[in-house]
Design brief:
The protein is mainly β. The protein has one domain (2-23, 88-337): Methylamine Dehydrogenase, Chain H (7 Propeller). It is built from three helices and 30 strands. Strand 24 (288-293) and strand 25 form a beta hairpin. 45% of the residues are buried. GO terms for molecular function: DNA binding; phosphorelay sensor kinase activity.
Length: 386
């Protein structure tokens, strides 16, 4: 592990060249009864306001209230009025690489964990504003098991779990190393390529695999249970590639798969899957890359062509095809951009919904009177704006 000091002269600045759209700020009613029922007006800001890339893979919010955007070209931190940009540079005093696969804030320890697609992990300390760097070292048994980090999960107790191309790993703070869980250390571990992970209500870790479906790992007993798609019978996982997981209501888990959205009930061990809904846009049955449930009970499913959303209370009627889902067609918002894929939906501390995609500016859906704005502000960074 190495610890690096950030240089504000190198990494904190406002971009001065105007380019394409940076943000779309969408305003809509805050009431649940009329949310998304009205026309959504929007305005745009330019690249001079600071985001490093339109390819946004993940979004998080740290203990101070800053928003962090993981992109294909470094990390952008937003304080409500300007951005701080972090890149890999020739001095080596910043990120391991610019291609970021995931970013998660540990608000308990005031750190931000940054996963690289091919180059390990960086950890940003919010107090000292320094970066720590972790990479695989074949000579250290407790180093990263792989430099290919695909997802990060911060547990409710501050434990840091990582999905990698060679299994699951847990950060060991006492020894500043990592504990590995894969098919060589855990009996029955089905697939070392873990694409995504999420914490369950009892501390269990939900895993989404590349080829072997969905697993529930018990970190206390180190036992694992796996569920795969069955070609016969109902209530089975729709596909063995699970791209994203979100623990929803008690005992329920949302799964984004290559064959649509599914809800798993671990009390009954059954899956409820979406079938084609309507004849015009049955996209929710197709490849779903991201799923998220907000605090108001709306479920968001990001696909390769649009963003589907519905109220959790309508789920049974939707599955029974008695009610349709709502669609937000991203290409209609981003004029001139062909089929942007939704990669992340994030809810900030004020209840605003942020949407990141693979080549279009992030979208903000302000669903609360208090929301972030990109513009001049006299407030402290921790306050952001009202």
């Amino acid at each position: 592990m190495s610890r690096l000091k950030t240089s504000r002269s190198n990494y904190e600045y406002m971009i001065t060249k105007e380019k394409n759209l940076l943000f779309l700020l969408l305003s809509l009613s805050v009431s649940m009864e009329c949310a998304f029922s009205q026309q959504i007006p929007f305005e745009s800001l330019t690249m001079r306001d600071g985001l490093s890339s339109y390819y946004v893979t993940d979004i998080t919010q740290d203990k101070s209230g800053f928003l962090w955007f993981a992109t294909k070209h470094g990390v952008s931190r937003f304080n409500g009025s300007k951005f701080t940009l972090y890149y890999k540079d020739t001095s080596g005093e910043a990120l391991n690489s610019n291609e970021i696969s995931a970013i998660k804030a540990d608000t308990i320890h005031n750190k931000v964990w940054i996963a690289h697609r091919w180059n390990g992990i960086n950890v940003f300390d919010g107090v000292s504003e320094t970066f720590s760097s972790y990479k695989h070292d074949k000579n250290k048994h407790n180093s990263l098991i792989s430099n290919e980090i695909l997802d990060i999960c911060i547990s409710s107790t501050g434990d840091v779990w990582m999905a990698t191309a060679k299994g699951l790993q847990l950060y060991d703070a006492a020894n500043d190393g990592f504990t590995h869980f894969n098919n060589t250390t855990v009996k029955g571990f089905p697939d070392d390529v873990v694409l995504t992970l999420s914490e369950g209500p009892n501390g269990e870790i939900y895993l989404g695999h590349l080829q072997h479906g969905f697993s529930i790992f018990n970190p206390f007993t180190q036992e694992i249970k796996n569920y795969k798609h069955a070609t016969t019978g109902k209530n089975t996982l729709p596909d063995n590639t699970v791209n994203a997981i979100h623990a929803g209501p008690p005992s329920k888990v949302w799964l984004a798969t290559n064959s649509g959205l599914s809800q798993f009930d671990w009390a009954t061990e059954k899956f409820q899957n979406f079938r084609d809904i309507g004849d015009i846009h049955p996209t929710i049955k197709k490849r779903v890359l991201h799923v998220f449930q907000d605090k108001n009970g709306r479920v968001w499913a990001g696909t390769e062509s649009d963003l589907c959303y519905f109220d959790i209370h309508d789920f049974e009627e939707i599955v029974a095809e008695k009610k349709d889902v709502n669609h937000m067609f991203i290409q209609d918002i981003y004029q001139g951009i062909s089929n942007p894929t939704v990669l992340v939906v994030f809810e900030d501390a004020f209840g605003n919904i942020w949407i990141g995609s693979n080549g279009a500016a992030p979208v903000l859906l302000p669903t609360n009177p208090r929301f972030l704005t990109a513009g001049p502000s006299t407030k402290s960074p921790a306050q952001l704006t009202d």
